[in-house]
């Protein structure tokens, strides 16, 4: 009986390892990027569009969304907001919100872009909590019976595919792999 169980366990281990080897190369990175594209790319692009006046000009709306305390302290005059740290935060936040999601979906500089998006989501969450002062129900709680809070529950789920991409990369079906292949051929 023990030999049969060991044989069955060995068969199971070999099957799981074979599937894992094949899927780890292309499927998981592609799936993480596809989930991000389907769920978060439209969200971040629509949000980024509210922060631009034209192609490269950052709108006053960006300051109100990102640096509300600084705008209030300046009496509502966005031009009076200090460049450091608020102005830089608005610039990096606005361009990051527009560029990083595209890099993640394309699989270009994926590890850096995914890590940047994780940081962006953390800063976004802190801004919602500390600046916009969302209520406790919106923040939610982990390990409770309600899986629908906007901040803790949803954003933790947003971070998970990005965490995979930051650790493992985009996989073989990505611009990262294409650039790596071209670079390797060029160096030979």
Architecture overview:
The structure is a single chain. The chain has 188 residues and is mostly helical. It has one domain. It contains nine helices and two strands, in the order H-H-E-E-H-H-H-H-H-H-H. It has helices at 2-39, 41-49, 60-66, 68-73, 83-106, 110-131, 136-139, 150-168, 175-187, and strands at 52-53, 57-58. A two-stranded antiparallel ribbon has the order 1-2. A hairpin with a 3-residue loop joins strand 1 (52-53) and strand 2. Helix 1 (2-39) crosses helix 8 (150-168) and helix 5 (83-106) packs across helix 6. The protein is flat. The model has no long low-confidence stretch (mean pLDDT 94).
Topology:
Elements (H helix, E strand, L loop, with lengths): L1 H38 L1 H9 L2 E2 L3 E2 L1 H7 L1 H6 L9 H24 L3 H22 L4 H4 L10 H19 L6 H13 L1
Antiparallel strand pairs: 1-2
Helix pairs in contact: 1-5, 1-8, 2-5, 5-6, 6-8
Provide the low-confidence segments as ranges.
none
Strand line-up across the major sheet: 1-2
| Secondary-structure element order, N to C | HHEEHHHHHHH
Helical run tally? 9
Would you kindly provide a brief summary of this structure?
Keywords: Membrane, Transmembrane, Transmembrane helix. The chain contains nine helices and two strands. With 188 residues, it is mainly α.
């Amino acid at each position: 009986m023990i030999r049969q169980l060991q044989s069955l366990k060995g068969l199971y281990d070999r099957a799981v390892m074979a599937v894992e080897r094949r899927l780890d190369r292309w499927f998981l990175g592609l799936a993480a990027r596809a989930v991000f594209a389907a769920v978060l790319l439209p969200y971040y692009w629509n949000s980024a569009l509210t922060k631009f006046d034209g192609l490269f000009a950052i709108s006053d709306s960006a300051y109100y969304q990102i640096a509300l305390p600084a705008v209030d302290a300046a009496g509502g005059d966005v031009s009076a907001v200090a460049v450091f740290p608020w102005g830089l935060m608005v610039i990096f936040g606005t361009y990051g919100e527009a560029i990083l999601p595209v890099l993640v979906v394309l699989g270009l500089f994926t590890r850096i872009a995914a890590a940047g998006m994780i940081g962006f989501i953390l800063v976004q969450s802190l801004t919602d909590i500390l600046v916009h002062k969302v209520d406790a129900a919106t923040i939610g709680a982990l390990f409770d019976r309600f899986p629908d809070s906007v901040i803790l529950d949803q954003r933790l789920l947003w971070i998970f595919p990005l965490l995979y991409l930051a650790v493992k990369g985009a996989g073989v079906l990505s611009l990262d792999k294409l650039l790596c292949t071209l670079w390797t051929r060029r160096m030979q």
